[in-house]
Amino acid sequence: MLMLTIDRAKEALKKYFGYDRFRPMQEEIITNVLERKDTLVLMPTGGGKSVCYQIPAMVMPGVAIVVSPLIALMKDQVEGLVSNGIPAAFLNSSLSLDEQMMVEHQVRTEQIKLLYVSPEKLVSPQFMGFLRGLSISLFAIDEAHCISAWGHDFRPEYTQMALLKQTFPEVPVIALTATADKITRRDILSQLRLQQATQFVSSFDRPNLSLTVLPGQNRFKQILRFIESRQGQSGIIYCLSRKGTESLAKKLSAEGIIADYYHAGMSPTERDRVQESFIQDRIPIICATVAFGMGIDKSNVRWVMHYNMPKNIESYYQEIGRAGRDGVKADTVLFYSYADVMTLRDFLDDSGQKELQLNKLLRMQQYAEAKTCRRKMLLSYFGETLSENCGNCDVCANPPETFDGTLIAQKAMSAIARLADPKLNDLKKSISVATGMLIDILRGSSRVDLLQKGFDKIKTYGAGRDISYNDWQLYLQQMLHLGLVEIAYDQNNVVRLTEESWKILGNQSKVEFTKLSSIRETFQKATAS
Ligand code: ADP
Ligand code: ZN
């Protein structure tokens, strides 16, 4: 019976999208949804998430409700579907009351298979009442990271989504996102009441993207040199401010380079014009704020530069991800200067998430300053481990001096393990501490709260006395970048072990540390610019 349904799904893929086969994870995801199980999908942009709910929507009886916060993109998405022969519609505040009533009529008379709505529309009592009278095939929650306050793009409108499972316990829910670390993923599931959901996490590795971080001195000269060797190639330069995009585009034009700018302060017509010229290869280079790129389907962007450092790794990863969608080699360059970090700090808003945003910014800064394979760091941020250095980043191209850090790492990890495991010491319950306390334990400090908690009774107390406090910080950062420890920013930044840690503790693999002298060198360059 189910076999039949997946065959129908394949037919629908051919009929509506013209594709012969599913990508590997799509088939498993669609099977899960067709079995009416809740599903969480984490797949990079361009991975093919939409099909995962659009095909089940076409095959299952009833109407699928798609929740998307990107009101600006809804119209385009729906028009695209309709032109493929899929009966889709949308409801949001951009429609007149008459238009909304018209759509509701079409839905009620079962002429629509996919209905896109904004989150605020979804949770309105009037709309929930409307939904109760319908036969619903599934709920799809797009951009699901917006639900979590731990995500990097939290939308308060998304917080009442628990209503869905409470009101419609029988209807399967599929949540999709391209950007969520482990903590955010856990939070999405709990917010949506989907604790039983099957999770599909595809690899975030984009091996065709080179990753480079350069000190921010003489950025403009460096950019000119970079562009000169890439005549006619499409590229995006992300800047922090609107003004910055304009002045950079002007400076490039003055050098005879065809470039334009894009930011949210421009009129919609102007923005469309710039976007279209870029997509149609008339203007190869766009200097833009983060407003540029959402929903742009251009596969041959050959490079992405960050004139300024992004505010967190999620944004950085999404922005560089716009390069090389065709799978062909593409380059990414991040300019790093300490001044940018200070500016970004000033930008942090008071949304009650200042602490979180600051932690994410710090992690971004650490990425820029570190001398560890960039891809290893990026992937470990999203919970993946890369066993070998990538060979396609600036650190791999200019390997720093390294040494066998297994013993140092083991000291730190065994201290964490002993704190967390009540059997190994005489503490009553498992305890986690932040890095500051951990280092003090390793260094055998006699600070009062440490002694009061009995941490001086742990076997590893003082085992790392020979290493300075500051050096320990840098080693722990490397462990974090290598995925050997985790910092739970949702729980006062306590340090935790990972699956990888146990391999090191069990002497199954070794740890390669970068010598601290080469890390300090990068830091000095950045502060000088
Ligand atoms: P996402 O939402 O993950 O960013 P999309 O759903 O927009 O990705 O899909 C990205 C591109 O891949 C689209 O052009 C889509 O038509 C195409 N695509 C999706 N599934 C398949 C498939 N099975 N075979 C070939 N192309 C596909
Ligand atoms: Zn590398």
Which short descriptors sum up this protein?
529 residues, alpha/beta, 7-stranded parallel beta sheet, 6-stranded parallel beta sheet, 17 strands, 15% strand, binds adenosine-5'-diphosphate, binds zinc ion, zinc, EC 5.6.2.4, isomerase
Number of strands: 17
Distance between the termini: 65 Å
| Main sheet overview | 7 strands, parallel
Please count the helical segments: 23
Mean pLDDT metric: 91
Ligands in the model, by name, code or SMILES, are:
adenosine-5'-diphosphate, zinc ion
Question: What would you call the shape?
Answer: globular
**Helix share bin:** 40-55%
Measured on Cα atoms, how large is the radius of gyration? 25 Å
What class, by secondary structure content? alpha/beta
The main sheet orders its strands as 3-4-2-5-6-1-7
Oligomer: single chain
> Uncertain runs with pLDDT below 50, 5 residues or more?
none
Strand content: 5-15%
How would you explain this protein's 3D organization?
The protein is of the alpha/beta class and 529 residues long. Helix content is 44%, strand content 15%. The chain has 23 helices and 17 strands. The chain is globular, with a radius of gyration of 25 Å. The mean pLDDT is 91. Bound molecules: adenosine-5'-diphosphate (ADP) and zinc ion. GO terms for molecular function: helicase activity. Residues 219-378 form the Helicase C-terminal domain. Residues 30-198 form the Helicase ATP-binding domain. This is DNA helicase RecQ.
